[in-house]
């Protein structure tokens, strides 16, 4: 992060990236001295309420973040920027967006946790849109024009006031990651679980293992009554709306998921937290597991990234893809759409065993609604196709020409086909991968 003094003294001349968080109430005029070079601007966590007309001078700006500011209207001047493709206004107070406010070049738009009641019809002109994050607003419907965004891949519309989900949404050829829980139109069946309540005093917290948008995960020792204790992982929810939706919806999906060898196992619900926070207790993941991939970058937008030199043997690709497909087939059998089927939410060990988790974007649905159940599964099949494509793109060179690899390639193409209704089910995917694995073992 740079300082305002550096900007004002000219020390940032020629900069391509600038990040300022210093209580700004207006955009410093010196920013416009960087108009020829500035590509990424982050003015998050200030007190901005508007952008000046001069902002249109930033003709090379590609990425702009204004989260945690005091905007009540989406700045119309952004619509004049010819190269702007990623825009973030998370946790502001935006109530209105004018018809000409969005640049048609937009690929990634973050409006999580605002007060929008409607989207402009002009959003349909953003035909490059791939990632649209709208959780935690007051939207009652989606504009029909959004159907023109045929490149849309990730959509977060949880925790709104949507009265229905339009049928055209499930025909978008590239939509792969969807979160729709927490809306009036969404009536999930009641959770049925016999998981125990685990009292906070019975847990001794140790080091923090990680922190996500919805909560903090820590290692803990669980002292069971009249039994020896065990090491566990405890997730305490923050209770705030996240980029994916509401923590209580994540909790419901976790509890409903049940046991599966390729799912991170929930042991119980947290009880008697001193701050009355909700939480879950999980089995501690054994040592030796690592993230299969990294989260998407600015450039990759919706696709995970992998460290240079990453390779998978055919046996590893079969084990990982088969385990994930089996886990997701199990989830849909329980009426759960994961919504975030990604390599970065998958842990693997040296043997290629996969553990799938993170239910922050999950949607619990009624399987009796067969049309919705089929639509959600076929949509998620495309997300699996992307993961399988990643594995095949990093396949060890000596395995690429094998017939078994070609069979996985055909499966990947079936999962990614734009005709949504012709994609295979997860049950069929699991069986096809198992058949390929049997062939490899027999050779």
UniProtKB/TrEMBL annotation:
Keywords from UniProt, A to Z, are: ATP-binding, Kinase, Leucine-rich repeat, Nucleotide-binding, Repeat, Transferase
Single GO MF descriptor: ATP binding
Provide the residue positions that the database annotates as binding ATP: 235
Per the UniProt record, the lineage of the source organism begins with: Bacteria, Pseudomonadati, Bacteroidota, Cytophagia, Cytophagales
Q: Which residues form the Protein kinase domain?
A: 203-443
**Record protein name field:** Protein kinase
Which EC numbers characterise this protein's activity in its record?
2.7.-.-
List, alphabetically, the GO terms of the cellular component aspect: cytoplasm
């Amino acid at each position: 992060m740079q300082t305002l003094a550096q900007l004002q003294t000219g020390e940032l001349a020629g900069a391509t990236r600038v990040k300022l968080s210093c209580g700004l109430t207006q955009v410093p005029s010196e920013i416009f001295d960087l108009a020829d070079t500035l590509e990424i601007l982050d003015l998050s966590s200030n007190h901005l309420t508007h952008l000046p007309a001069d902002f249109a001078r930033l003709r090379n700006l590609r990425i702009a973040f204004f989260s945690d500011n005091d905007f009540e209207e989406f700045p119309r001047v952004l619509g004049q920027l010819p190269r702007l493709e990623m825009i973030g206004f998370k946790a502001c107070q935006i109530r209105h967006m004018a018809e000409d406010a969005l640049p048609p070049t937009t690929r990634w738009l973050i409006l999580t946790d605002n007060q929008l009641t409607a989207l402009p019809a002009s959003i349909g002109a953003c035909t490059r849109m791939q990632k649209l994050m709208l959780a935690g607003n007051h939207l009652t419907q989606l504009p029909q024009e959004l159907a023109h965004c045929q490149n849309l891949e990730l959509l977060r519309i949880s925790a709104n006031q949507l009265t229905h989900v339009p049928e055209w949404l499930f025909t978008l050829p590239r939509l792969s990651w969807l979160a729709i829980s927490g809306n009036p139109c969404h009536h999930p069946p009641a959770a049925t679980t016999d998981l125990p309540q685990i009292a906070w005093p019975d847990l001794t917290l140790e080091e923090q293992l990680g922190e996500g948008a919805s909560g903090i995960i820590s290692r803990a020792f669980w002292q069971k009554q009249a039994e020896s204790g065990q090491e566990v992982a405890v997730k305490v929810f923050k209770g705030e709306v996240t980029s994916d939706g509401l923590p209580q919806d994540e909790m419901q999906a976790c509890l409903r998921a049940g046991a599966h060898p390729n799912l991170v196992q929930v042991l119980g619900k947290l009880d008697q937290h001193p701050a009355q926070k909700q939480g879950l207790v999980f089995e501690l993941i054994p040592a030796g597991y690592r993230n299969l991939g990294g989260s998407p970058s600015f450039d990759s937008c919706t696709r995970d990234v992998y460290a240079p030199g990453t390779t998978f043997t055919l046996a590893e690709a079969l084990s990982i893809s088969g385990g994930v497909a089996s886990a997701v087939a199990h989830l849909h059998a329980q009426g759960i759409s994961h919504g975030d089927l990604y390599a970065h939410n998958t842990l693997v060990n040296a043997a290629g065993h996969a553990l799938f988790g993170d239910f922050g974007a999950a949607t619990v649905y009624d399987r009796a609604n067969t049309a919705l159940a089929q639509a959600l599964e076929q949509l998620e099949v495309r997300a699996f196709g992307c993961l399988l494509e990643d594995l095949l793109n990093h396949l060890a060179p000596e395995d690429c020409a094998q017939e078994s690899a070609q069979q996985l390639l055909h499966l990947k193409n079936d999962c990614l086909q734009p005709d949504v209704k012709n994609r295979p089910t997860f049950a069929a995917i699991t069986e096809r991968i198992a058949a390929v694995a049997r062939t490899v073992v027999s050779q």
